[in-house]
Amino acid sequence: MQEKGLLIVLSGPSGVGKGTVRKELFSQHDTAFEYSVSATTRLPREGEQNGVDYFFKTREEFEEMIREDQLLEFAEFVGNYYGTPVEYVRETLDAGRDVFLEIEVQGASQVRKKFPEGLFIFLAPPSLSELENRIVTRGTETEDIIKGRMKAAREELEMMELYDYVVENDHVENAANRVKSIVVAEHCRRERVQHRYKKMLEVE
Ligand SMILES: Nc1nc2c(ncn2[C@@H]2O[C@H](COP(=O)(O)OP(=O)(O)O)[C@@H](O)[C@H]2O)c(=O)[nH]1
Ligand SMILES: Nc1ncnc2c1ncn2[C@@H]1O[C@H](COP(=O)(O)OP(=O)(O)O)[C@@H](O)[C@H]1O
């Protein structure tokens, strides 16, 4: 029987650098896992492509996906829906390939309940002041919203203890390399290797 792939979930507070670290990981030629493209109701930003960056949906279309149970998880984040189409995840894992999700923390908690065997990695900022710095530098939020995000970030940071690993996003390349090392280590730890050895020992 085909061994299943590993479900890798990268999450963490808004502004910590999840998207940046994910893009760094997927720009490296030796990245051996598949990116799960999310569905969202937010409008495309300049340069974003449907089916590559996100599947862009209307609210009605998204709500239909929810009703039809097409999402592994979904969350409402700053006024828009974001969710993971379940079919791609299941098919890819069943084919023995690893799937990578980059999602916010509410969605990650839902995945934890449905896929406890997944690998959950929390991306943490070097400090709260550096997190604030990154949100301010991105320049997409007003002062009031930044205060709200920082309050939310404290609650999100408390969820760190529910994850298997914490990676500090000090430098993007370092963080991406740590994520890759964790995935390699996890493969060594998991049953799939043991199965191989079991079979070998049975033959001898
Ligand atoms: N729960 C959930 N969160 C997602 C999904 N896709 C993206 N996100 C998260 O939604 C948040 C907003 O994403 P986006 O609008 O692209 O903005 P940015 O990542 O902050 O530049 C980020 O924290 C993403 O990690 C998803 O399928 N499910
Ligand atoms: N290691 C890092 N050092 C400095 N700035 C970073 C680092 N990682 C990300 N950033 C910056 O922080 C901001 C938030 O990153 P982003 O990837 O959008 O976060 P998230 O997806 O977690 O909301 C962006 O302006 C990004 O360029």
TrEMBL record:
Reaction catalysed?
Answer: GMP + ATP = GDP + ADP
Gene3D superfamilies reported in the protein's UniProt record: Guanylate Kinase phosphate binding domain, P-loop containing nucleotide triphosphate hydrolases
What Enzyme Commission number(s) apply to this enzyme? 2.7.4.8
UniProtKB keywords = ATP-binding, Cytoplasm, Kinase, Nucleotide-binding, Transferase
**What is the annotated localization of this protein?**
Cytoplasm
Q: Record's superkingdom?
A: Bacteria
Q: Which residues hold ATP?
A: G12, P13, S14, G15, V16, G17, K18, G19
InterPro entries registered for this protein in UniProt: GK/Ca_channel_bsu, Guanylate_kin-like_dom, Guanylate_kinase, Guanylate_kinase_CS, P-loop_NTPase
Q: Which GO terms describe its molecular function?
A: ATP binding; GMP kinase activity
| Listed GO CC annotations | cytosol
Q: Which residues form the Guanylate kinase-like domain?
A: 5-184
Q: Which Pfam families match?
A: Guanylate_kin
Checking CDD domains in the record gives: GMPK
Function as written in the Swiss-Prot or TrEMBL entry? Essential for recycling GMP and indirectly, cGMP.
Family assignment? Belongs to the guanylate kinase family.
- Write down what this protein is called: Guanylate kinase
**Species assigned in the record:** Mesobacillus selenatarsenatis (strain DSM 18680 / JCM 14380 / FERM P-15431 / SF-1)
